[in-house]
Amino acid sequence: MGRHGENIRKRSDGRWEARYMAYDEEKGKKVCRSVYGHTYEEAKRKRAAASRLPAVSAGTEKLSGQGNDVPKDIDFAAAAQEWLAAVKSARKASTFEKYNFIYKCYLEKEFGGMMLCQIAEKPVRDRLAFCGAASESLQKSIYGVLNGILRYAAERYHAVVPDIKRPSAGTCRKETGTFTKAEQAKLLSVLCTNMNRFKLGVLLCLFTGLRLGEVCALKWSDIDFANKTLAVRRTVQRLYVENAAAKTALVETVPKSGKSKREIPLQDLIIARLGDFQNTKEYVFGGDKPLDPRTMQNHYRKILKEAGVAYKNFHTLRHTYATNCIEGGTDVKSLSEMLGHSSVKITLNYYVHPSMDTKRMYADSLCEFYARLYGQILGRAG
Question: Which domain holds residue 313?
């Protein structure tokens, strides 16, 4: 039961959940987030720390020590380190590593020696001109981290800083696209011949829309052979590790978002293929540990080459699955849940790519409709 007015409740699993509003840099809007604790007090403390992250909703309390004695200006690097420390204490390790990597690689060199009072929108955008050659996803991340640091400085130090808007590319979002029907036929032919665990992984993605990290982290315990379902409970990714000899480490974390935890129905074909490879190891594709996504990607490239299909990134399998589902009659809400999207809008706008054959089919059906209508008109006229 929740404590009245505090938005803190005890979950059925025994943990306490505390909710708060925060600004999501990637989505560009306020979202509801949760932190968890084994006691009510622990959850409340974690929420207090999390609500002091940059760009929180207007109703959160100010940081302790904030007042007239706080300096009106501070250098960008110091604000960045404080912001990153706040992220590390309240967000997933993968989120912190991503933001830290973005700051170290793209922002520290350009802005590390600047004072906040020197930050203005035009000079900043001039310094970020190199972003034009980066992918849209990377551009969004760079601007998101930059604005996160600036919003933190505005709240923590009352610094007057601009909201740096990412310049419009003047074109539509670049689509990942899908494999054509002919490419899918070639790919399936190879996947179903002399199948190994890597071919099974690619086939599974075509039939379920799993993300790369999700399929690499899949455990046999996630598969319910009796009810023919697959549960997505975790993901794995290789993250940058600062000051480490190996530079990166394989990290298993919870899925991308709350909606990403989901159950997906499995077809008889996939159940049978999984049954052929079932063993006593913990992970379906990695054995005693999660499969490294880089290993899966390397084998994916080899599979495409064997099939005579031009390379498209691994995420294309997910887009192909989504498009095939829609063209096969799947309703958008069901598809959105199977993909683990936070909204139907994401599914429609970015994951469904009707083929020319599908568009032609609908165009031809319209022609048939007009032909029937025209015949009826002639019949009445006669």
Answer: 181-351
